[in-house]
């Protein structure tokens, strides 16, 4: 492989590249999501190693066609790949941080519609904290009285 840019190595024709992705920065789920979304334009082969994911990416279309008269070389895809990785990693982290709140909102919605047999813990006035009498550090949300 020739031509190296940080953790990216290009082949001689610049139709494929091998990217070393640090496992301390990007999770497996984020890497899989990022390359899934790029699969329309790029082939990818992901190999998991001790400290890195080693991903070989190649162009699906390397020569101009009627459908795609302007073909991006692999060098032009590298910023998009790193943007997709960052986007995917942030989505994974936000999803993990907000999972409990999402589950509670869904449980409350199903409880209000009568789908669930047992209502979720807490009251509708306080959708975040359990109704156990303890004071929490969370803000209490009050519903408006009916008009």
Query: How many beta-strand segments?
Result: 5
What amount of the residues lies in strands? 15-25%
The string of secondary-structure elements, in order, is: EEEHEEH
> Compute the gyration radius: what is it?
24 Å
Q: What is the CATH C level class of the domain at 2-98, in words?
A: Alpha Beta
- Largest beta-sheet characterization: 5 strands, antiparallel
Helix and strand content put the structural class at alpha+beta
Q: Return the CATH topology of the domain at 2-98.
A: Gyrase A, domain 2
The appropriate CATH architecture of the domain at 2-98 is 2-Layer Sandwich
Helix percent reads 25-40%
Total DSSP helices = 2
Q: Distance N terminus to C terminus?
A: 72 Å
Compute the average pLDDT. Answer: 82
Shape: elongated
Uncertain parts:
1-5
Task: Give a summary of the structure in a few sentences.
The chain is an alpha+beta fold and about 150 residues long. It has helices spanning about 30-35, 75-115; strands at about 1-5, 10, 15-20, 40-50, 50-60.
Describe the structure.
By secondary structure, the chain is of the alpha+beta class. It has a domain at about 1-100: Gyrase A, domain 2 (2-Layer Sandwich), CATH 3.30.1360. The chain contains 2 helices and 5 strands, in the order βββαββα. β4 (about 40-50) and β5 (about 50-60) form a beta hairpin. α1 packs across α2. The longest helix has about 40 residues, at about 75-115. The termini are far apart.
